[in-house]
């Protein structure tokens, strides 16, 4: 219970951190979607630790749905569902909602997805919870260490908000590791190898994602730089072209050797103005800096007629052409007609005597010039500025939702340090950036997860197969042991354990099997004075005597094809098929001598142990075993009555 409370506390603490750090406020309305997903996830995990399965699945399922929708914005090709389509869906919502503003960095989003899935799978080792938590840990490490510029067109989570999200994921991850650790410790042998292999594959996929993201960023960076350089080059070319044209215009009046009349000025200036419609005006200024001619003579241009520029602009470069006979350029200034622009002053000299007749002023308005240079450029995708020494003179395009980076390209113009700034919008980055890095990352994570399951299941099946094999081997050994025991039992049921000879029961069975092998001879051997052996030498010694007598008697009987059995006590019985009476008697004498020759001491006679033998033989069927044994027994009785150590044959 205490452990469950601690784990639930970690989940609720993560929820509190998310609420404090991501609560939506002005300009951050899109945080509401992220906060909703995190809230459901933390609540679902807390319910899981509290073992409320229904609530856990409900909260985690809703959180997973939101997570998958956001993940789709990273993965779906632009040709399927474009950024404009996503934007149209978000445009109806109140506040600052757009595609880049609802997407957290991809690594953190996938970490939340992994936590969600592992909780839904109930942290089961057999379903890959160990590799999921290992992958989330790697994602967290890369999210902390990776360059933030790799997560383009995503939420600009920085500072406190970034720490909030990292802390949230870290606490939920810690709670899941703590919940899984006991089971993982018990089954670490089965998990360690697939965990190492799959973690290494995930690490390689993260490195591949990092490199592909960097390459994709470089591609977009290069493409936007080429566009900016194209615009800057066109601006420079346009201004240089019009400056060369104005030089020809001023040269014409120098060749004329006189100041232009009103009609001539209007006619010639109109042709130049048509070619360069971004001119604010073309003016003629006399040697005293008074504007005497202007084209077009309309709107604000008419107001500059008669103005002495040395009075209104004491530092004007107009002194260069009027006093020194060289060109003068103003750079970016506030035009008398309003707006920002540049003025170039070109001297008009009498070619005959070299006197200065005045100057031609070329007034360029920067805004129409920039519009012309942009031509077909996508104004909605870029913010373009013209600035000089940090002062922005013109801004064209959107002013918000811009990328955190841009290009500053110098424009080669006389007497200026004009710089063109080009900054793409987040929407342009989301539309232009390829999906390959994110597809590679997610595919690699899924392949590593599936590889873990394959190796895990293989090792599990192998271990279970080993257990079954060991059980089968043990069963086989038990069966062999039982079979051996059964044989021993069967053998003991038919043999005498002391002498290893067949017992009475087995003997009777064998005699019945010999019924067709006539003549059949039966002998009964009785050890003489065996009781005195047990009384004086002890039963152990008596057992040894029995074993010895059985050993010396067995060989001749089995050589004759018969069977020797212990009939009980000190008596042995012999049955030999196909044995005539004479042969039987000879074998009986051989047995008697073999026992006597064993030299076993007999305390009753101070001699050696001997046996008395009674023999009976039946020459033809039918076999009446009881009568045959009775005849042999009677013959034995006669042998013992006649002095023992002899063979008696029944009639």
From TrEMBL:
| Documented EC number(s) | 2.7.7.65
Residue stretches spanning the membrane:
55-76, 133-153, 165-185, 192-209, 439-458
**Mind listing the GO biological process terms from this record?**
cell adhesion involved in single-species biofilm formation; negative regulation of bacterial-type flagellum-dependent cell motility
Which reaction is the catalytic activity of this chain?
2 GTP = 3',3'-c-di-GMP + 2 diphosphate
Which keywords accompany this UniProt record?
Membrane, Transmembrane, Transmembrane helix
* Annotated NCBIfam families: GGDEF (TIGR00254)
Which protein are we looking at? diguanylate cyclase
Q: Which organism was this protein described from? A: Cobetia crustatorum
Q: What is the lineage of its organism?
A: Bacteria, Pseudomonadati, Pseudomonadota, Gammaproteobacteria, Oceanospirillales
């Amino acid at each position: 219970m205490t452990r469950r409370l601690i784990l639930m506390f970690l989940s609720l603490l993560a929820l509190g951190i998310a609420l404090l750090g991501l609560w939506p406020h002005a300009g951050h309305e899109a945080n509401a979607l992220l906060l909703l997903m995190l809230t459901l996830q933390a609540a679902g995990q807390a319910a899981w630790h509290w073992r409320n399965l229904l609530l856990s699945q409900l909260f985690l399922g809703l959180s997973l749905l939101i997570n998958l929708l956001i993940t789709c914005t990273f993965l779906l090709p632009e040709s399927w569902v474009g950024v404009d389509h996503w934007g149209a869906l978000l445009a109806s919502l109140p506040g600052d909602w757009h595609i880049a503003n609802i997407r957290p960095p991809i690594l953190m989003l996938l970490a939340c997805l992994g936590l969600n899935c592992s909780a839904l799978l109930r942290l089961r080792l057999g379903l890959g919870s160990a590799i999921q938590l290992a992958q989330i840990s790697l994602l967290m490490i890369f999210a902390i260490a990776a360059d933030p510029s790799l997560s383009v067109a995503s939420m600009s989570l920085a500072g406190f908000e970034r720490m909030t999200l990292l802390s949230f994921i870290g606490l939920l991850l810690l709670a899941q590791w703590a919940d899984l650790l006991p089971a993982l410790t018990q089954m670490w042998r089965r998990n360690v190898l697939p965990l190492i292999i799959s973690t290494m594959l995930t690490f390689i996929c993260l490195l591949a994602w990092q490199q592909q993201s960097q390459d994709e960023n470089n591609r977009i960076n290069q493409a936007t730089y080429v566009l900016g350089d194209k615009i800057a080059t066109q601006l420079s070319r346009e201004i240089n072209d019009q400056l060369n044209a104005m030089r020809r215009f001023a040269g014409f009046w120098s060749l004329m050797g006189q100041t232009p009349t009103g009609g001539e000025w209007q006619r010639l200036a109109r042709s130049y103005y048509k070619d360069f419609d971004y001119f604010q005006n073309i003016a003629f200024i006399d040697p005293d800096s008074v504007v005497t001619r202007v084209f077009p003579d309309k709107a604000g241009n008419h107001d500059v007629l008669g103005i002495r520029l040395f009075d209104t602009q004491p530092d004007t470069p107009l002194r260069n052409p009027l006093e020194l006979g060289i060109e003068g350029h103003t750079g970016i200034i506030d035009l008398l007609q309003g707006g920002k622009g540049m003025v170039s002053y070109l001297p008009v000299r009498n070619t005959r005597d070299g006197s200065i007749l005045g100057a031609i002023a070329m007034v360029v308005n920067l805004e129409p010039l920039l519009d012309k240079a942009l031509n077909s450029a996508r104004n909605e995708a870029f913010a373009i500025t013209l600035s000089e020494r940090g002062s922005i003179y013109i801004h064209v395009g959107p002013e918000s939702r811009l990328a955190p980076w841009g290009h500053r390209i110098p424009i080669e113009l006389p007497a200026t340090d004009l710089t063109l700034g080009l900054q793409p919008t987040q929407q342009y980055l989301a539309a232009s950036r390829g999906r390959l890095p994110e597809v590679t990352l997610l595919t690699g994570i899924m392949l590593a997860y599936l590889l873990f399951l394959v190796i895990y299941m293989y090792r599990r099946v192998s271990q279970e197969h080993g257990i079954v094999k060991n059980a089968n081997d043990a069963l086989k050994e038990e069966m062999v042991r039982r079979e051996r025991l059964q044989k021993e039992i069967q053998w003991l049921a038919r043999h005498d354990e002391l002498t290893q000879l067949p017992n009475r029961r087995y003997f009777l069975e064998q005699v019945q099997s010999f019924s067709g092998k006539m003549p059949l001879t039966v002998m009964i051997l009785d050890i003489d004075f065996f009781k005195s052996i047990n009384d004086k030498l002890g039963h152990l010694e008596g057992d040894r005597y029995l074993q010895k007598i059985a050993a010396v008697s067995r060989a001749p009987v089995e050589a004759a094809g018969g069977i020797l059995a212990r009939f009980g006590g000190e008596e042995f019985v012999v049955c030999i098929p196909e044995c005539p009476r004479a042969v039987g008697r000879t074998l009986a004498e051989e047995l008697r001598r073999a026992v006597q020759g064993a030299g076993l001491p007999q305390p009753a006679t101070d001699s050696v142990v001997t046996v008395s033998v009674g023999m009976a033989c039946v020459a033809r069927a039918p076999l009446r075993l009881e009568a045959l044994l009775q005849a042999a027994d009677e013959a034995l009785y006669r042998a013992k009555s006649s002095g023992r150590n002899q063979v008696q044959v029944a009639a």
